[in-house]
Amino acid sequence: MRIAQKSIRLRARRRGFHLITEEILSELSDVGTFRMGMCQVFIQHTSASLTINENADPTVRMDFEMYFSKSVPENDPEYQHDYEGSDDMPAHLKSSILGSSVMIPVRNGRLALGMWQGIYLCEHRDQGGARNIVVTIWGE
Predict the structure, then answer these.
(1) Which family does the similarity line name (predicted)?
(2) Which residues, including other chains, have CB under 8 Å from residue 45's CB and lie 6 or more apart?
């Protein structure tokens, strides 16, 4: 078994759901050397998250943002953690709901995503800044 790991710094993005599959793949020259294995993509932040979903129609990403904005509203008077802005506590909640990592099988030197699947960076802050990702691949 072999293991490869890479740290990737993603540029700052506005609040929303952003496809980052190609950006991740462009940094993963090692993936082509694995016949089979697993790839974990992990975000080192508590106010942004990762998920896998539809990669073709951008309205899906818009609907994700709409849904999470309705489901986890800002300015709830019951939030105690509010000193970093009205978007901070909702961002932490959204991040916990979606999660900080995704696992993708590696098959024949490629991520075995489905035809219509892509990796999303889910930016939950208005000004989240650059985001750090750690990608780990293990297998044969």
Answers:
(1) Belongs to the UPF0047 family.
(2) 95, 100, 128, 131, 132
Residues 6+ apart with CB under 8 A from 65: 15, 16, 17
CATH class name, domain 2-75+84-139: mainly beta
Alpha helix (H) residue ranges in the chain: 21-26, 58-71, 88-98
Of residues 125, 63, 117, the one with CA closest to residue 92: 125
**Residue range 113-124, pLDDT digits in tens:** 999 999 999 999
In this prediction, residue 16 carries a pLDDT of 98
Q: Hey, what are 92's tokens?
A: 């932490």
Alpha-carbon separation of residue 59 from 35, 62, 63, 65, 108 (angstroms): 35, 5, 6, 10, 32
Q: CA 9 to CA 88: how far, in whole Å? A: 21
User: Is the pLDDT at 33 greater than 90, yes or no?
Assistant: yes
pLDDT(38) > 90? yes
